[in-house]
């Protein structure tokens, strides 16, 4: 709290990002949040911004109506305040600068966040995901793969988890030798096992081969992986980097596998760009879509120039290659990039998701993230800028993975148990630092931080709100008919994910959300089924006993959590539930209302749909003035007079 | 002329039909006067019936004695026919070419088509101006129905009955007509019940370089304003284009002569540019080899999405003037038969919930497109695969449908119809067994005696069996004005038309069915709950007298 000099400022204007609209309200600064409360009493909206979500604060030069403060968030929210007094603005600005750069982990929200659970509940939350059980589900350990305790004390590789699965034939000396030949000691280990063909997906980092170095243990290691699969004589080695990058690494004593030294490998570059390119790409994308009065040409050219969708497609192409090699050819695949924690995580996770329907369920998706991202050491703290950041380490690698999954949900609407709200919510919390899961860079660091004792698990929280994240048209039988997804990679299938990158820009979204509508109907169906049952029981009682029991309202479940507020993906429909509730409260015998109350006409509009918000052009018609201009050209939001 | 003269080879066996995402079919190819038919020998389920009128262009290829004809259709489909025998192939190709480019309208299929269904409700009677006027009369008495164009002499492209301000007599109308391009004087397009504001449409005024004026025209449009009220003239052309039009005798309303009106210029492109845009877009969509960057750059270069945005923005602006500003609007471009109609009809969809029902939408197309004289026959003569230089072809109507689809996407619960209806209208505007879209204006249709000699599209669509396909399960009527977003991020490529033949929609269709299932199940459950409650209530009332002694 010592950083907060001005906890409250009144008469602050919040400007809309894409139109000339603004609202006035009060700004509150707390230890964890920046809160804006609109003064308008009838529809007072509140905006809560977690300090951890703030990527940058900018104080613009003083204007006549006050001092503008521009806040950009990692969840793609952008708010523009105008604070009447410059002094207040400066106070808020400098407090935020300090607050959004925590210097130690202890300052992160997760360590103060308390969802009013007892220790047991917290522990249970952390026990939800069990990776040992996950490997068991895949069929590991088995006659060819075993659990090794070589990294129990994090001695061989600091950034790997304690429990690792390797081929039976890989002895400890081989493992240790191989790890010395791999960047950061990240030697080849199993991440997914395709039981049907006994083919394995393994991951590692680049070999320290330089121009000519070789390592017998590493060669043995790959051979052991190859031998563990009797279905194929060869294994694929996928270097997910562009060839040029891999070549450049050789000069630094790193590089890629020489096919001459390894027997029976098929080496393949897949050309996904590095973290710096991805960071720049997203920045360009956000600049383009953040432009006011964006023309279609600038949008499409900007989308192209940002390269964002090209990168998304590259990741998808790589994952498809992986899935095909495993499921069609039955070959094992070893995936790596440079350090094996960014592109490798993307490709392994997405590839597994294509191959295994389990990962397309809510629980399975959590397991997948826990396995390929968290446990194998994707550097969330660095990539998501959690703590005293090095800007060169920040990169939207995980966001890209979520987007690839979203692109798949667009092609296979029935394949996923979850909807895009789930993906967006995970993205929200990867940056929120509200839960312990994504803190730190590796399992070891998480243990040091005692996260399981001191923080809560996101997965438990998400599961408690599961209803909100369900895909209403999900079909478990789809998984049976499509165990392996084969998406089309035609360029036109890759679309801009508006609901992610514009999640807070209401004017951009469809005004009526099909997802929300159908989800509500599904909830309603569940309740109606209960009501039908209750009524039937009651009718039976009537026919059996003559004693007229006073009718009771049927038991009803009211445990559904509210729809998340931050996900404004359409107008809140008149909830069937509410209508239903009214019905139930009616005394039996009276005619139950059959339909939702008719919407009366008049001045109402579909929420979020107003003429001014969209800025088709503002009409500044001051008729009667003497000097009438010849014509009015209406620009987006700005009226310009021309003669 | 006999069709038989054009058909050199009526029948070839052993023809292979290739279509994307469908198995190859081997069968017999038959040519009739109006159809290309391929039926497989194994069973009769696999059949292709293609109207010659639907064929946009064909390509021939030969490998040895095996000939291949690639047929490119106006609905953007591309199919391949492998025909054994060089001579047969050449014959078939030249026959198709001849039959698909018949000049005479009266040889078109609608004049030969006999419906296999009973016409219950004659679609030719769907829109009766007199009845529409009765509705208007119930709201306001400031308008009258004029017969000045009874014989189509005042304005050849207008219908015979027109709604005009009550105080303007026919003589003034004739004078105003002589001051407007093609005689298209300002007429009522839409009356906004909520505030009594109106939308009028016309063609450009013929001011020429010397600034001609016409008192009657000024009087006519001023008569649509209430005392002290203002109005907006939305000129769909840029100011530069409008200035240039003066040199050719056209022009725009001078503010000095129309002091109560404000002019707004927008930039909706002319028809020949649109055709080029469509060709480029379809080319981009059909090229499967595109990398991400190339696809986006091709999509951009086609300019199609820009057109959608521009048209939609203009329509929203017109609607905003009427509903938010409380001002009347006059819309025109050059001829008043293309961009003008896009704007007036889209504005009505935004403003008027009736236009979002199936019947209302049909009436809108009938009133604002067919009767208003959009030259369908000229505009839809060729589609995206035309090789020749476009004459007056342009996807004006398709762009309108695309804009409707965009609004539908943003308000998925506000329309009674679904995307299929829009796609079906697109198909029928280009090639149809029905007479509805033949001809360029009412006068031509009367001359062709379409209503006696052909079947109306509406007669078919409005049959309950057909309607089912076009119903939107999410529809919940609302009386609100719906304001769509026109940000480029909110406007999507209409995949249902442009990628229709390039992707498999199986997964999407199944998901859609599941959604329909959920909705129907909900209705079923609600009915069940209600009926159970009634039963229970009945039992209770029967029981209770026994209790009271």
UniProtKB/TrEMBL annotation, chain A:
Annotated Tyrosine specific protein phosphatases domain ranges read: 306-350
Compartments it resides in: Cytoplasm; Endomembrane system
Membrane topology according to the record? Peripheral membrane protein
Cellular component terms per the entry's GO annotation: cytoplasm; nuclear envelope
Say which domain of life the source belongs to: Eukaryota
Kindly list the positions annotated as binding substrate: 274-275, 337-343
Q: Name one GO biological process term.
A: phosphatidylinositol dephosphorylation
Q: Which PROSITE patterns match?
A: PPASE_MYOTUBULARIN, TYR_PHOSPHATASE_1, TYR_PHOSPHATASE_2
According to the record, the residues making up region (Disordered) are 543-566, 601-629
Q: Which Pfam families match?
A: Myotub-related, PH-GRAM_MTMR6-like
The Swiss-Prot or TrEMBL record describes its family as follows:
Belongs to the protein-tyrosine phosphatase family. Non-receptor class myotubularin subfamily.
**What is the protein name stated in its UniProt record?**
Myotubularin-related protein 6-like
Automatic annotation (TrEMBL), chain B:
Entry membrane topology: Peripheral membrane protein
- This protein's superkingdom? Eukaryota
The molecular function terms of the Gene Ontology recorded here are: protein phosphatase binding
Cite a single Pfam family from the UniProt record: PH-GRAM_MTMR6-like
**Under the cellular component aspect of Gene Ontology, which terms does the record hold?**
cytosol; endoplasmic reticulum; perinuclear region of cytoplasm; ruffle membrane
The processes (GO biological process) annotated in the record are: negative regulation of autophagy; phosphatidylinositol dephosphorylation
InterPro entries, alphabetized? Myotubularin, Myotubularin-like_Pase_dom, PH-GRAM_MTMR6-9, PH-like_dom_sf, Prot-tyrosine_phosphatase-like
Q: Where in the cell is it found?
A: Cell projection, Ruffle membrane; Cytoplasm, Perinuclear region; Endoplasmic reticulum
**Coiled-coil stretches:** none
Domain Myotubularin phosphatase span(s) in chain numbering = 123-498
Family indicated by similarity: Belongs to the protein-tyrosine phosphatase family. Non-receptor class myotubularin subfamily.
Q: What is this protein called?
A: Myotubularin-related protein 9
Instruction: Name the source organism.
Output: Cyprinus carpio carpio
Q: What is the lineage of its organism?
A: Eukaryota, Metazoa, Chordata, Craniata, Vertebrata
């Amino acid at each position: 709290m010592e950083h907060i000099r001005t906890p409250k400022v009144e008469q602050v204007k919040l400007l809309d990002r894409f139109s000339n609209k603004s609202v006035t309200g009060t700004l509150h600064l707390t230890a964890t949040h920046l809160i804006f409360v609109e003064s308008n009493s009838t529809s007072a909206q509140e905006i809560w911004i977690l300090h951890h979500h703030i990527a940058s604060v900018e104080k613009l030069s003083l204007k006549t109506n006050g001092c503008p403060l521009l806040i950009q968030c990692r969840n793609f929210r952008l708010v523009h305040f105008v604070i009447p007094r410059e002094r207040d603005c400066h106070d808020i600005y400098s407090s935020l600068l300090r607050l959004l750069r925590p210097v130690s982990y202890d300052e992160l929200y997760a360590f103060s966040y308390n969802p009013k659970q007892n220790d047991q509940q917290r522990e249970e939350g952390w026990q939800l995901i069990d990776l040992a059980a996950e490997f068991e589900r895949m069929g590991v350990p088995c006659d060819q793969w075993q659990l090794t305790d070589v990294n129990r004390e994090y001695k061989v590789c600091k950034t790997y988890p304690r429990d690792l699965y390797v081929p039976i034939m890989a002895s400890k000396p081989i493992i240790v030798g191989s790890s010395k030949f791999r960047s950061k000691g990240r030697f080849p280990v199993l991440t997914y096992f395709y039981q049907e063909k006994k083919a394995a997906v393994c991951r590692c980092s680049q070999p320290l081969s330089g121009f000519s170095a070789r390592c017998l243990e590493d060669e043995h290691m790959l051979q052991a992986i190859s031998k563990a699969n009797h279905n194929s004589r060869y294994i694929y080695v996928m270097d997910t980097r562009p060839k040029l990058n891999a070549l450049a690494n050789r000069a630094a004593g790193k590089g890629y596998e020489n096919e001459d030294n390894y027997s029976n490998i098929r080496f393949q570059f897949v050309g996904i760009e590095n973290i710096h390119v991805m960071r720049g790409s997203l920045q360009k994308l956000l600049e383009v879509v953040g432009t006011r009065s964006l023309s279609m040409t600038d949008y499409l050219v900007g989308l192209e120039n940002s390269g964002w969708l090209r990168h998304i497609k590259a990741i998808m192409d790589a994952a498809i290659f992986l899935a095909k090699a495993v499921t069609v050819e039955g070959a094992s695949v070893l995936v790596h990039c440079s350090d094996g924690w960014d592109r490798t995580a993307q490709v392994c996770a997405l590839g597994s998701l294509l191959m295994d329907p389990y990962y397309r369920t809510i629980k399975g998706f959590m397991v997948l993230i826990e396995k390929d991202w968290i446990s194998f050491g994707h550097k969330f703290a660095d990539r998501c800028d959690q703590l005293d950041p090095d800007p060169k380490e920040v990169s939207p690698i995980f966001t890209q993975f979520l987007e690839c999954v979203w692109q798949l949900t667009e092609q296979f609407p029935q394949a996923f148990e979850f909807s895009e709200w789930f993906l967006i919510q995970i993205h929200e919390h990867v940056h929120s630092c509200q839960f312990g899961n994504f803190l730190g860079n590796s399992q070891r660091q998480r243990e040091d931080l005692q996260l399981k004792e001191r923080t809560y698990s996101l997965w438990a929280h998400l599961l408690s709100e599961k209803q909100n994240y369900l895909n209403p048209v999900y079909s478990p039988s789809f998984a049976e008919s499509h165990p392996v997804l084969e998406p089309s990679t035609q360029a036109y299938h890759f679309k801009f994910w508006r609901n992610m990158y514009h999640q807070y820009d209401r004017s951009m979204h469809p005004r009526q959300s099909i997802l929300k509508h159908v989800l509500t109907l599904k909830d309603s169906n569940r309740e109606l089924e209960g009501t039908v049952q209750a009524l039937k029981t009651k009718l039976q009682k009537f026919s059996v006993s003559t004693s007229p029991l006073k009718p009771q309202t049927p038991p009803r479940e009211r445990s559904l959590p509210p729809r998340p507020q931050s996900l404004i993906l359409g107008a809140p429909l008149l909830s069937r539930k509410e209508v239903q509730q009214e019905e139930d409260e009616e005394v039996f015998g009276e005619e139950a209302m059959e339909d939702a109350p008719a919407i009366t006409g008049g001045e109402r509009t579909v929420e979020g749909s107003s003429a001014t918000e969209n800025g088709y052009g503002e009409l500044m018609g001051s008729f009667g003035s003497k000097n009438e201009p010849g014509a009015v050209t209406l620009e987006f939001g700005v009226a310009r007079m021309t003669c | 002329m006999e069709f038989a003269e054009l058909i050199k080879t009526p029948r070839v066996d052993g023809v292979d039909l290739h279509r994307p995402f469908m198995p190859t079919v081997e069968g017999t190819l038959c040519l009739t006067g109006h159809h290309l038919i391929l039926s497989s020998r194994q069973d009769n389920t696999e059949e292709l019936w293609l109207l010659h009128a639907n064929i946009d262009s064909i390509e021939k290829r030969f490998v040895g004695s095996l000939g291949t004809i690639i047929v490119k259709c106006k609905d953007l489909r591309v199919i391949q026919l492998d025909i054994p025998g060089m001579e047969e192939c050449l014959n078939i190709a030249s026959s198709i070419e001849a039959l698909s480019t018949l000049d005479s309208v009266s040889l078109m299929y609608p004049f030969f088509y006999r419906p296999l269904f009973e016409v219950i409700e004659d679609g030719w009677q769907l829109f009766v101006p007199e009845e529409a006027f009765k509705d208007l009369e119930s709201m306001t008495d400031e308008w009258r129905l004029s017969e000045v164009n009874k014989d189509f002499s005042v304005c050849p492209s207008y219908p015979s009955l027109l709604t005009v301000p009550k105080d303007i007599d026919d003589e003034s109308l004739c004078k105003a007509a002589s001051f407007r391009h093609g005689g298209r004087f300002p007429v009522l397009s839409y009356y906004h019940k909520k505030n009594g504001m109106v939308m009028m449409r016309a063609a450009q005024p013929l001011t020429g370089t010397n600034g001609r004026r016409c008192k009657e025209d000024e009087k006519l449009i001023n008569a649509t304003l209430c005392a002290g009220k203002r109005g907006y003239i939305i000129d769909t052309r840029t100011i530069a284009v409008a200035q240039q039009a003066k040199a050719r005798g056209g022009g725009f309303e001078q503010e000095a002569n129309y002091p109560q009106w404000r002019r707004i210029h927008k930039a909706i492109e002319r028809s020949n540019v649109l055709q080029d845009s469509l060709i480029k877009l379809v080319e981009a969509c059909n090229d499967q080899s595109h990398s991400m960057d190339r696809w986006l750059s091709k999509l951009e270069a086609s300019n199609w999405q820009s057109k959608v945005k521009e048209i939609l923005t203009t329509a929203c602006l017109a609607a905003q003037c009427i509903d938010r500003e409380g001002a009347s609007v006059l819309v025109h471009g050059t001829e008043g038969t293309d961009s003008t109609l896009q704007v007036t009809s889209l504005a009505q969809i935004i403003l008027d919930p009736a236009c979002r029902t199936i019947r209302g939408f049909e009436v809108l197309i009938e009133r604002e497109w067919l009767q208003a004289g959009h030259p369908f026959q000229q505009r839809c003569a060729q589609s995206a695969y035309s090789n020749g230089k476009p004459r007056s072809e342009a996807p004006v109507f398709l762009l309108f449908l695309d804009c409707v689809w965009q609004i539908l996407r943003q308000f998925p619960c506000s329309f009674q119809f679904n995307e299929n209806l829009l796609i079906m209208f697109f198909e029928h505007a280009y090639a149809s067994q029905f007479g509805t879209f033949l001809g360029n204006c009412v006068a031509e249709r009367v001359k062709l005696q379409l209503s006696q000699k052909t079947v109306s599209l509406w007669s078919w669509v409005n049959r309950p069996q057909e309607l089912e396909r076009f119903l939107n399960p999410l529809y919940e009527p609302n009386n609100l004005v719906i304001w769509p977003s026109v940000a480029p991020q909110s406007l999507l490529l209409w995949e249902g038309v442009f990628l229709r033949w390039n992707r498999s929609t199986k997964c999407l269709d199944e998901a859609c069915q599941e959604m329909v299932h959920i909705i129907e199940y909900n209705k079923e459950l609600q009915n069940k709950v209600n009926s159970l409650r009634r039963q229970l209530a009945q039992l209770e009332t029967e029981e209770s007298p026994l209790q009271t002694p």
